[in-house]
What does this fold into?
Amino acid sequence: MRMKRHKIRKKRNPGWYFLLPEFLGVSVFGLIPFADVVRRSFFQTVDGSFVGISNYVQVIKNDAFDLAAKNTLRFVVTCIPCLLLLSLILAMLLQQVLILAEKKKKHRDVTMEQFYRGSAAALKSMYLLPMAIPAASVVVLWKILFDSHGFVNSAIHALSGMNGIGKILSVLLVREVDWMNTDAAFGILVFSYVWKYLGYDIVLWMAGLSAIPQGIYEAAEMDGAGKWKTCFYITLPNLRPVAFTVVILSVLNSFKAFREVYMVAGSYPQENIYLLQHVFSNWFQTLSVDKMAAASVMLAFVIAVFVLLLERSWEREE
It folds into this structure.
């Protein structure tokens, strides 16, 4: 009996060896640097003296940090619901197209099967294309569209000679407008973020939709359930595990919007799009490592609390 237990333990032990490289990688590139950031947040950068929570107090009282935190929160609250809802709708439509293709295949309707599969492939290419575009190319696109001499201003001036809406636009737009330096900049940022990461969320939703057994839908159809009831009582409940992952990854991806804004507007953009990453970048340039460390710890704490609360609410509803 002891020999058998010893053999079982021997078989189980190799699993830890496979996990060891991952654990070392996370420790070296994640846990240890973060621990150093936490340590630096309690010390002054210049002389290395211990200052307690003084850095945290300075960060909270900083007007730039306050503005950036409000803008970032506003950006996340605006973007995430739009992104989740739009990506879910498009993923469900795409899934329906693939289901129709499978039905046509069963009925040996080759022409319609190829049509539906071609449509699905075209849709996939459309929503995955923005993910493949580099940030620098997105910046060029922004400048072409929203610069004072860009496409939007040219289109409005072209319409100004027409009746109706053209006259209204000509009154509102007397001169060329740099849209990235107006209140419209926030809306442009939201639109570009949703456009950029829509395909990422669609892929995640598609993975969840593909995991739902088709037999459930067939049984519901035989029982007389309509499309809406099938959606609310079968599709959405089965997507709950995927929804948790999509929400978390979408929130984390929302912090990547800084690159495009920085390339277009620099370190001090229009107030509506001045995000937390701008504060970190400016503090890094002035070597305010202590403030930057304190702000990073606070941000990590807020994200961790958000994830834990979301996970707990998910578990309660299940």
User: Anything to note?
Assistant: The domain at 41-317 is CATH 1.10.3720.10 (MetI-like fold).
